[in-house]
Amino acid sequence: MLDGKQVGRSQACKVVILTNILAPYRIPLFNLIAEADGIDATVLALANSESNRQWKVACGQNRFGFAVLRGWHGFVWRWELPIHLNWGLGRAMRGLAPDVIITSGYDSPAYWQAFFHAKVHRKPFVLCSESTLLSTRYTRGPIGFLKSFIIHHADAYIAFGRKSAEYLESFGAPIKRTCVSIDTVDMNWFRDAVTKHREGAGFSSARAKYPKTLLLFVGQLIARKGLGEVLKALARLRDSDIGLLVVGSGPLESELERSCQDAKLENVYFEGYRQQDSLTEYYAMADILVLPSFKEVWGLVVNEALASGLYVLCSDQAGAGYDLIREGWNGELFDPNNVADLAARMSKLEGQIDEIRSRREAISCHACSEYGIERSAQAFIEAIRKVC
């Protein structure tokens, strides 16, 4: 159990967490927060889903109060920008009467409404931030001013990783009021599921159908994710002993498949989108995850891959790499714009693949021990107790 003394629910600090949607990887996190002594947590979501997400959320897994606000929703694909215009938040806040309000950002009107509700009613406001200076579009001008305003007037902060903490500090957030967490998933679940696949009766024969060294890409097939650069690197190598599993879907899927045909790349396997319960099959098959994003706030696939024992080639534009990667041991950072360098790294790792596989168990154990969901929950709990 996370630290804290026993407090009855009637005396518990009532916390409202406002988030965009209830992503499946957030449910274990919110469960731990709600189960902590002295905390009574309710999660309010702006929407059931967003147009760029295909997650299926299993109902009944949450052990916290939960509701979806009514509203109108849209999505601007050009900027990957979800739009949520909600109503009923004021009534929900009055009914819940929270002692602490947490928002997972400031990019929707409901987050600002929650912020002003906290200020009017003199309740602590905690800002949870994933943004980094690597990923943000604006630090100046009107948008930069609004960011600075809400950051300056928050009572505490939860930063997902040290790059996010640096971002908050650049806007004037006091370090002593910032609880640095990591963005993560249920690491043990991934480890156990992948181990089950690898120990299955038909796994060896299924794996033998692929090249000796198998890379894995998991993500949306959009320009920002950088898969095209990986395909260019493979085209440079022309190595039949290296294969690539592509798990994901998106508007560039047909274009990327055609580029493989034009370049006569044979060992690239487009598998489409997969839900979490079937995704682990691909982590079990692969040796190396490649995250080539030109811009990535965090990159939860890095967590999933490390829990599965994979070595990770991680873009230096992804926040996760700076907190999770131990250079040369469980992965390495690279410039996603440098195709020649990426190709050289792939070739080098192919020659080290047996050594990399020998570290698989150690990589997985370390990831589950150091980067578990409990560490993320503890930062939330610490922030709540700072202000409650």
**Which structural class matches the secondary elements?**
alpha/beta
Based on Cα principal axes, name the global outline.
globular
Helix content: 40-55%
The beta-strand count equals 15
**Main sheet properties:** 7 strands, parallel
- Poorly predicted regions are 1-8
Instruction: Please state the CA-atom Rg, rounded to the nearest Å.
Output: 22 Å
Overall description:
This protein has 16 helices and 15 strands. The longest helix has 15 residues, at 373-387. It has a seven-stranded parallel sheet with strand order 3-2-1-6-7-8-9, sandwiched between helices. Strands 12-11-10-13-14-15 form a six-stranded parallel sheet, sandwiched between helices. A two-stranded antiparallel ribbon has the order 4-5. The protein is 40% helix and 21% strand. Mean pLDDT is 93; it is low at 1-8. Helix 6 (187-198) packs across helix 10 and helix 6 crosses helix 11. The protein has 388 residues and is of the alpha/beta class. It has helices at residues 27-35, 89-96, 109-120, 141-152, 162-170, 187-198, 203-207, 227-237, 253-262, 276-285, 300-307, 320-324, 339-351, 353-358, 360-370, 373-387, and strands at residues 13-19, 39-45, 65-68, 70-76, 81-87, 100-103, 125-129, 156-160, 178-181, 213-218, 242-247, 268-272, 288-291, 311-315, 331-334.
